[in-house]
């Protein structure tokens, strides 16, 4: 591309690359510092059933970088995976989510809430991951039966038997599993039926256009049917409008998450949201 735009463009291109590399290096340093300075927070996005009841939340990590604003996890999680920082960051996320879950166990109206935590494939495949989960559960006193890990299809790139063994070990502790961003990655149906999953999560990329795009609608319907025939729950992410929700509901999807109901919220605001909804009418 640079070549085609003349000799001056090559220099510009290189300068840009240099820029990217150094801002990446800067981001990487900041990430390491942020871990030490506890600059991360979890926000929680409600998940609702077809009656409009909040059945759980997804924990989503947030990083406020000074002088830079919010950095998207879509940007720093892959970086953390590449640099190995995902290990301490992932541990922090798990601990924070479990601490919250343990607190909810004693709050009326909150003890039924499930906590979904995103676990990156790199983190999941760490040698001591199962022990780490056990340790965090013990330290925080969180009820394992309320804890759910959102895994992605990138796990399928690892040796499948070791992935299954690890999932089973965590199942034995009481945890459940959701396959996040389903349909965007490497899933083979042969693997899918072997994984001890409880839930499929329809990717927001399919949900977004179900009303206009026949193919996306067909994919969403297929995932819902697949979940049903495999005995798995199906949840749709990225539900932004009532029309989305109605279509999904009509196709048999019973669980929803998206801006229609709520953005990811800091815990105090989540409390207000839950209070408002308790006994409230159907959404919104
Ligand atoms: P994800 O797990 O698929 O999370 C869903 C993303 O969609 C979140 O973005 C959420 O804020 C956003 N979202 C929710 N509802 C809507 C909606 O109605 N419309 C639209 N357009 N977007 C919606 P977020 O928080 O920026 O996270 C992006 C990705 O970063 C996540 O995708 C996940 O892959 C990763 N991530 C976030 N938090 C964590 C974490 O704690 N650990 C790990 N390993 N990854 C995380
Ligand atoms: Mg997720
Ligand atoms: Mg997702
Ligand atoms: Mg997604």
TrEMBL record:
<protein>
    <submittedName>
        <fullName>Uncharacterized protein</fullName>
    </submittedName>
</protein>
<feature type="domain" description="EAL">
    <location>
        <begin position="24"/>
        <end position="278"/>
    </location>
</feature>
